[in-house]
Design goal:
With 497 residues, the chain is mainly beta. The protein folds into three domains: 66 residues, Immunoglobulin-like (Sandwich), CATH 2.60.40.10; 199 residues, 3 Solenoid (Pectate Lyase C-like); 213 residues, Pectate Lyase C-like, CATH 2.160.20.10. It is built from three helices and 41 strands. Strand 1 and strand 2 form a beta hairpin. The radius of gyration is 23 Å and the shape is globular. The model has no long low-confidence stretch (mean pLDDT 95).
């Protein structure tokens, strides 16, 4: 057992071992010798602690002694707000944030707080108690707009689909700040399912500005989120951009399965990111690792690298852990361990195409359980979604094209100990470019079995494919491929529908 993080009023822990997401058995947790909670997951948090206080936690004869962080001040929201009967509380809540001293905590007691976008500042803590809900206002016209860049230094602070662009401010907006903790057992609700909200309608059209996230951070440092539920997002749910040293522990991210572009957690051009013990069930990719799109990203952007994804549960998304399709500034050193993927269209998914450029260098995946995942592993160098050129002959051609700075590079991938049951489409589908082969792929101990009545679907979003079921491992345009104990049970030869 390890201590992931202490806060003023909580602590987060992780059980070590070889199980994925869930612990091998239900366990009792003792706090200072008294039974506290029972757990069945490898990552758990204890809330309602006192600041600057020593504690002893014991689980399965493993003991950790720790001290909570000090708290400079406490601002309790419930005591000074007017009657919370549907009144929009944006100004009151923003005043609490603005007045909170360094090291202080803004404490949201149980209750629903209807609010517009809130702008955080450095060196504060947001605590959402059990039963507390920050609820976004539904009306588009009441949202301020973030410019693409700061006028003073030209820093990018807002983007859409991998490029600088105006977007509506998010319910939680953090720009150029550091040392902030958002934690507790409460809810951050983007409220996009509200009948008065139109975020999910005509979603590919820019109306005033692009859709907001629910939690957005740009140019930030040392931000953590722990324990909270984030739901009903207008677009991507949690989106760090050009930020570093970020931790997401024990979160619960939920969007309806038919909600458009509601990715769960999208680190973009960010470094030193930990995603541990988090459950994600959304309408698009669960975790999507991105690095911008096109010329601006290659010249001005930053790579997205040094990410750890561990002990997470991904459910009902297009992909569980996805790299791309925007990766023009480069993606590298990504570690995915001890996770469960359940009901996603794809498991590990890499997507890019000619013209995007960039690179993926270093992906390490181990101890993954997949249940009902359509295609467990895909690399698609012909991804056609987004932008008018996606289905062009240049993107789709299987003939070698000239190598330019728009040619993507994919290399150094190691996957091991992957078990996928009830797959539908293919065990794996790996298709590189003929002019730039995928390099150095090693797969060890991967076992795939298929559903009895599989649903036909495309193995990848690329032109000229047909729907299929029960496909074996497929590899094209790859160099230095090593397979050890790699099996598929019950596969069929490729057949179109």
């Amino acid at each position: 057992m390890i201590l992931l993080k202490t806060y003023a009023r909580a602590a987060c822990f992780e059980l070590t071992g070889d199980s994925a997401y869930y612990s091998n058995e239900k366990l009792a947790v003792y706090l200072n010798g008294k039974h506290c909670i029972d757990i069945d997951k490898n990552v758990f948090s204890i809330f309602n602690l006192e600041p600057a206080t020593s504690y002893c936690v014991e689980v399965a004869n493993k003991v950790i002694v720790f001290k909570t962080e000090a708290e400079a001040a406490l601002i309790e929201i419930d005591g000074w707000l007017p009657a919370n009967n549907g009144l929009v509380l944006t100004n009151y809540l923003q005043a609490a944030i603005n007045s909170c001293p360094q090291g202080g905590t803004i404490y949201f007691a149980a209750g629903t707080y209807l609010t517009g976008p809130l702008f955080l500042k450095s060196d504060i803590n947001i605590y959402l108690a059990k039963g507390a809900e920050l609820l976004a206002i539904p009306e588009r016209n009441d949202y301020p707009v973030l410019p693409a860049r700061l006028p003073v230094d030209n820093k990018v602070i807002s983007s859409w689909e991998g490029e600088p662009n105006q977007a509506f401010a998010s319910l939680i907006t953090a720009v150029n700040i550091s040392n902030v903790n958002i934690y507790g057992e409460g809810i951050i609700n983007g409220n996009a399912d509200n009948p008065r909200a139109d975020w999910w309608h005509d979603c590919t059209t820019k109306r005033g500005a692009w859709r907001p996230r629910t939690v957005f951070m740009a140019q930030c440092h040392n931000i953590t989120m722990c324990g909270v539920t984030v739901k009903n997002s207008p677009s991507w749910t949690v989106h760090p951009l050009l930020s570093h040293k970020l931790s997401f522990f024990n979160l619960n991210i939920e969007n309806p399965p038919n909600s458009p572009n509601t990715d769960g957690l999208n680190p973009e051009m960010s470094e030193q990111v930990e995603i541990i013990g988090t459950r994600i069930s959304v309408g698009d990719d669960c975790i999507a690792i991105k690095a911008g799109k096109g010329e601006w990203a290659r010249k001005e952007g930053a790579p997205c690298r040094y990410l750890t994804i561990r002990n997470c549960l991904m459910q009902f998304g297009h992909g569980a852990v996805v790299l791309g399709s925007e990766m023009s500034a480069g993606v590298g050193e990504i570690v995915v361990q001890n996770c469960i993927f359940e009901g996603t269209d794809r498991g590990i998914r890499l997507k890019t195409r000619r013209g995007r450029g960039g690179y993926l260098d270093g992906l390490y995946v181990s101890n993954i359980k997949m249940l009902g995942v359509m295609t467990p592993f895909t690399i698609n160098s012909y991804y056609f979604c987004c932008d008018p050129d996606g289905k062009s002959d240049y993107v789709a051609s299987k003939e070698p094209q000239p190598i330019t700075d728009g040619t993507p590079v994919i290399k150094n991938l190691i996957l091991s100990d992957i078990e996928a049951t009830d797959a539908h489409v293919a065990a794996s589908f790996i298709y590189g470019l003929p002019e730039k082969l995928i390099e150095n792929v090693k797969i060890t101990n991967m076992h795939v079995s298929f559903a009895e009545n599989p649903t036909p679907e495309y193995p990848a979003m690329m032109r000229d494919l047909e729907k299929q079921t029960k496909g074996n491992y497929f590899f094209a345009n790859i160099k230095n491929l090593k397979l050890t104990n790699v099996k598929a049970e019950g596969y069929d030869e490729y057949k179109g529908e």
